[in-house]
Amino acid sequence: MKILDHLEEWIITFLMGSATVVIFLAVLHRHMAGYHIPVLQDWLLSLHFGWAQELCIYMFVWMCKFGAAYGVRTGIHVGVDVLVNRLPVEWRKKAVFVALIGGAIFTGIIGTLGTSFIWENGMHYAMFHLLGLDTGDLPQGPTTPDLEWPTWVVYSAVPMGSFLMCFRFLQVMWIFSRTGGLPHHDSAHVDGLSDDDLTFEAAVLKGGAK
Amino acid sequence: MSGQAPAAEWGPMTKQRAAIWLISISVALLAVGIIGGNVGIVFALLLALMLTGIPISIALGLTVLMFLYLLTHVPTEAVALKLFTGIEKWEIMAIPFFILAGNFLTHGGVAKRMIAFATSIVGHLHGGLALAGIVACAMFALVCGSSVATVVAIGSIILPAMVKQGYPKKFGAGVIITAGSLGILMLPSIPKVIYAISTNTSIGALFVAGLFPGMLLTLMLCTVTWYLARKRNYPRMPKANWGQRWTAFRKSVWGLMLVVIIVGGIYTGVFTATEAAAMAAVYAFFISVFVYKDLKLKDVPRVLLAGANLSAMLLYIITNAVLFSFLMAHENIPQAMADWIIGKDLGVVAFLLFVNLTLLLAGNVMEPSSIILIFAPILHPAAMRLGMDSVHLGILIDANMEVGLCHPPVGLNLYVASGISRLSITELTVAVLPWLATMVVFLVIVTYWPSLSIWLPRAMGMM
């Protein structure tokens, strides 16, 4: 379980960071290639960053799906809780269960829909091909425009992320039924608040306002 | 799913009252569903799901699934396809980049230097530190696209300093809560990106259009603060000389340079909005870690993770909102709404009043991104037919969101400020009133003075 938690965090941290780097490099490349520096320019022109945009989009789609599952665990998905929080305690508990079950059902359905979608769009062919079975007239499935990856691989983030999210909802529900606690995202959390007086004094002094 | 704070503030209702509420709500929803036909059913379903406290993203998605499955013959494959392609838009990718840039700026010591600079300019006036807080929020808002990040970045430094100088805590919190909302009005802003995506408006024009309204709001907030501070005789700071001001400016210039990168880049066509956002993220990382050195390299993954968490939440809402707008388009709802509004023969003035009231009401229960994703596609066609400008409507919606951020029950700025100041939401609600009233006046100005927003992007030839 711990491993799954960490894996989730690593994946989305990595995707976030590397997507930024990829786009940064692509833009840098586009502008550097415009300058007439003899050897460098030839080398830069020989590189193609046309796929960067597409890669970045897919990275963020993956990040979105796995991050949404991580978000269930950290309680960042906000809902309208004005009514629910004012209900009597036992009723509130029931409402929270309804909400969590709703989440689990939705993600479950999406996961199932997603699986059948990618299965029909090339995964079926790929699996049979891999196993050496007769592929018959199964469609090979489309590929992405720039990277030319099979789309079913790219889109597998949807079922995987959705099922993971479904699992997280069930997990939160289990914890709630045992302890009555919900994950609560604290957007007000600020690091190092205690020494802020000092930093401010220092900043003002350095800034020369005193 | 979140926000236990209100429960603690107001306490649960008795069973009897709760039952009355629940019954009346369900009767009202049923009535809407029966009278309104398909449109009514869609919205009754959505409201019913939302009121159970289900995350908004999931409520949107479930509404679509239930409606399509029960009442139409649209194949579910269409839904599946939308799920994949819903967020595959290059423009949407600006959102995670802007969030990441904001996170780096918040943790990277940029705010501290901006506050020092602002203090050196306005510190010697009545309520100097409070004014400096507002000006610093405005400067931070120039480079950051989120109001929560602005409140955290500026508030967590200036609030303790104000309390130390003898300001009442409530005064400081009130100032920062409202000034922080500038974050989504000045230049880059995440709600503006979302609006641009859902209505196909130019992101660059929207960014620039927020500059003058933002400056006006800054001025208005400063005036109110100055007046209150003079009446109550709050402390002033020693006047800084020009040399000190120059030093403070030079130190904060690294952060302010981001304005040039974002706006200059988009304006000259060097970058697209998304690339500008990515550049801003890299630049913010660079100055935080290597120039100001306030962020350790080992803390970078934590900042990335926090950014990814928030972006994933927003992107998830967007995915489901795309599904929802697919349903609305399928049922012809935006068009029907536009017909209905035009048919009422309201005229622009009354229509704008209606828009403001609707958005302010929505601001009571939902956070900005969801409101924009649900309401912009509905309001936009009607506004266009009335001859309004798309950019003006965007800024108007943005200003409404600002007000929504500053009052309970879901005003995020309040919760953030409550976290920093350890004041309760009830106390802050009262504390924020003078500035909130100012913002409502500002909202009226923005609503009925379109040139304030659209003059600059017009003059720059961006629209």
Which structural traits does this protein have?
heterodimer, A: 210 residues, mainly alpha, 70% helix, 0% strand, flat, disordered C terminus, B: 463 residues, 24 helices, 78% helix, globular, disordered N terminus
Helix percent of chain A reads 55-70%
Report how far apart the termini of chain A are: 54 Å
Backbone CA Rg of chain B: 22 Å
Strand content of the residues of chain A, in percent? under 5%
Describe this structure in words.
- The complex is a heterodimer of chains A (about 210) and B (about 475).
- With about 210 residues, chain A is mainly alpha-helical.
- Chain A is built from seven helices and no strands.
- The longest helix of chain A is centred in the middle third of the chain and has 43 residues.
- The two termini of chain B are about 40 Å apart.
- The N terminus of chain B is likely disordered.
- Chains A and B meet through helix 1, helix 3, helix 4 and helix 7 of A and helix 1, helix 2, helix 3, helix 4 and helix 5 of B.
